[in-house]
Specification:
The complex is a heterodimer of chains A (451) and B (177). Chain A has 451 residues and is mainly α. Chain A contains 14 helices and no strands. Chain A folds into three domains: 140 residues, no CATH class; 138 residues, no CATH class; 142 residues. Chain B is an alpha+beta fold. In chain B, the strands form two sheets. Chain B has a five-stranded mixed sheet, covered by helices on one side. Chain B has a four-stranded mixed sheet with strand order 1-2-4-3.
Chain lengths: 451, 177
């Protein structure tokens, strides 16, 4: 019961992640990648991996290094490994982007980018799994939210293994027949494992705890939460293990993925029921901006699920899969990520700066580090931009898509300015800002929270 | 059963102005059952005694030449549980006095429960005990308590929804050797 101290490098993860988000939005505004070129074009792959690894995975890793210890009431296995981990992930991402650019003929430098990217990303994700896995393993039996995270971590392992298999084939390192089959047909499995397993399932697990914590709602561990865990895990098992087996034994992948999809939709329905319950059962009547904006992210997840069903019914899911992936990535995952970042950055900064002097001298409240009225408009613009861009993709309007992503870029920049102000204590009243004994937090890392 | 000890010498880190807490906790986390830790430091690491006490270690401190300290942490034999742990193992078998302050922080927005406990603790005398009811285990509070030299005990009540923490006020750092 030593408690949880501040994760040293979480802010560096958040900063790198936000930089990647801005880069991705700039690319979309510039018309780079889908929908201007096909969904499997190298340019689209550049864009997709800036979002999936650069933005969402780094954001998730930074958050998990801080919050897995909270979920399991145990310190992180290593507080120093996250820095080399970040180095491997960023370097691996850059190598991967160069590999795609070379595929697209946009650079002419002959280096073994794919094997290099595969090695670096494998090292980075292995370190993530090792550090968080050891923390979880030492905390068995796991609480329900931690079990979601455990399944998410298994999924990132599967996503990375599939990605590495693709890289080795594309880089010409391997010509194994099964690997060739997996590389040719396994893309949907890679996407499902990454967006569905790693990012969505982990976000669901963490959100159960954070929503309850921030709204003073009861912790859920009833049948519907367990149902979401088991059905979701089953969906991922069928999609990933079943999917790869289907490819290797020449089965019908559509049937396997449809079965997984059905299980996944049931899991999302149960999660939706749980979140509605959390909001209704909350003791805190007036909720903060982060919880209000999380509603829009959750609505985007629900909209994604409905969209999948409707497009399937119309028989055009394949044609519009880009719009679905966009809404899941930016409405649900990024929307939830930005909402929670707004709270987490302020809270961690407050704890680091004022924790040592609480009670000894007047200190500001966490809410004094932010000005919600200023941030609300940026969040509103962000979600509006995401939904407009999704509609633009569905209606094949590339120009409207670029305009909408422009709105997202402006909104994201506005949110980032608010996060920077919060980290720099800009909005705290001058008299309270730095009482005696308090130290201004460093921008990219946290000083150890102990004597 | 004889206890084997893993040596951790953080004196070079401390002399260089560094912060050895992480290294110590990493060493503690990889200890096998029954293993202890022998720590060498340039000062008596009082807060650490509390932190490792809460992890089930008892300690024996010995001052070395030049104001340096050797502290031997031994596993107490009874691993700490999530239910009711004890802040300072040295006081495991002593009865704590009745709390003189009782806080009900269950309806407060986080992190107000922590703020209220720390602020109340500042008004109390060494040895006095404060009791607080919370809605969850106050994980971010414990490092702050350890830093201030306080010890604590805590656990969920039978209803599984209320966490009760007892904080015993420590002697302020600097006022005693």
């Amino acid at each position: 019961m030593a408690g949880v101290s501040l994760s040293r490098w979480t802010m560096a993860y958040f900063a790198s992640a936000l930089l990647a988000l801005v880069v991705a939005e700039c690319l979309m505004v510039a018309g780079y990648g889908y929908p201007a070129v096909p969904i499997a074009a190298p340019e689209t792959l550049v864009l997709v991996h800036v979002v999936a690894i650069g933005w969402l995975s780094l954001l998730m890793c930074g958050a998990l290094f801080q919050f897995v210890p909270v979920l399991v009431a145990r310190p992180l296995h290593s507080n120093s490994l996250p820095l080399p981990t970040l180095g491997c992930l960023v370097a691996g991402l850059v190598a991967l982007l160069f590999a795609f650019l070379k595929m697209a003929g946009q650079i002419d430098l002959d280096l073994a980018y794919f094997p290099l990217a595969a090695t670096l990303l494998a090292a980075g994700f292995t370190l993530v799994l090792w550090n968080l896995g050891r923390t979880l393993w030492a905390s068995r039996p796991l609480t329900l939210p931690a079990r979601f995270v455990a399944v998410g971590l298994l999924s990132v392992g599967a996503t990375a293994i599939l990605g590495i298999a693709f890289a080795l084939i594309l880089g010409g390192v391997s010509t194994n027949a099964h690997l060739l089959d997996v590389a040719a047909l396994g893309l949907p499995i890679h996407v499902i494992a990454g967006l569905g397993g790693w990012l969505t399932f982990t976000a669901i697990g963490v959100s159960y705890r954070l929503l309850a914590m921030f709204m003073l709602a009861p912790e859920l561990d009833g049948p519907s939460t367990r149902g979401a865990l088991y059905l979701g895990t089953a969906a991922l098992g069928v999609a990933i293990v079943g999917g790869v087996a289907t490819i290797c034994f020449d089965g019908n992948l559509t049937i396997t993925l449809s079965a997984a999809g059905l299980l996944g939709l049931c899991a999302i329905a149960l999660y939706g029921r749980d979140t509605v319950h959390l909001y209704r059962a909350r003791k805190r009547r007036k909720i903060e901006l982060n919880s209000r904006m999380a509603i829009l992210a959750l609505a985007s997840l629900a909209a994604s699920a409905i969209l999948i069903v409707v497009l399937l019914g119309l028989g055009v899911l394949g044609r519009h899969i880009g719009a679905v992936v966009f809404l899941v990535s930016f409405g649900w995952l990024s929307g939830l990520g930005l909402s929670k970042l707004y709270k987490i950055v302020a809270f961690l900064t407050w704890l680091e700066c004022y924790g040592p002097v609480i009670g000894k001298t007047p200190t500001p409240r966490v809410q004094d580090l932010v000005v919600e009225s200023r941030a609300t408009k940026w969040f509103a613009l962000y979600f509006l931009g995401v939904w407009m861009a999704t509609v633009a993709l569905l209606l094949d309007g590339p120009l409207a898509f670029r305009v909408s992503t422009g709105a997202m870029l402006i909104a994201t920049s506005g949110i980032i300015v608010q996060l920077v102000r919060s980290r720099s204590l800009c909005d705290v009243k001058a008299g309270l800002r730095l009482p005696e004994g308090a130290r201004r937090p460093r921008f990219l890392f946290s000083s150890a929270q102990h004597a | 059963m004889t206890t084997t000890y893993v040596d951790v010498d953080v004196r070079p880190i401390l002399r260089a102005g560094g912060e050895p807490f992480e290294q110590i906790m990493e060493a503690v986390n990889v200890l096998k059952p029954g293993e202890g830790l022998r720590l060498f430091a340039t000062f008596k690491p009082t807060p650490l005694l509390h932190v490792l006490g809460s992890k089930g270690f008892t300690h024996v401190s010995k001052e070395l030449d030049g104001g340096e300290w050797e502290v031997v942490f031994s596993p107490s034999g009874t691993p700490p549980t999530n239910e009711a742990s004890v802040g300072t193992a040295a006081h495991n078998d002593t009865l704590w006095p009745e709390p003189i302050k009782n806080l009900d922080n269950r309806e407060l927005d986080p992190p107000e429960p922590m703020v209220k406990i720390l602020a109340t603790a500042e008004t109390m005398q060494p040895g006095e005990v404060l009791a607080a009811l919370l809605r969850r285990e106050p994980l971010f509070l414990f490092p702050e308590l350890a830093k201030r030299g306080h010890s604590w005990r805590g656990g969920f009540e039978a209803d599984g929804k209320t966490y009760k923490v007892l904080v015993r006020i420590g002697i302020p750092k600097g006022s005693a050797a």
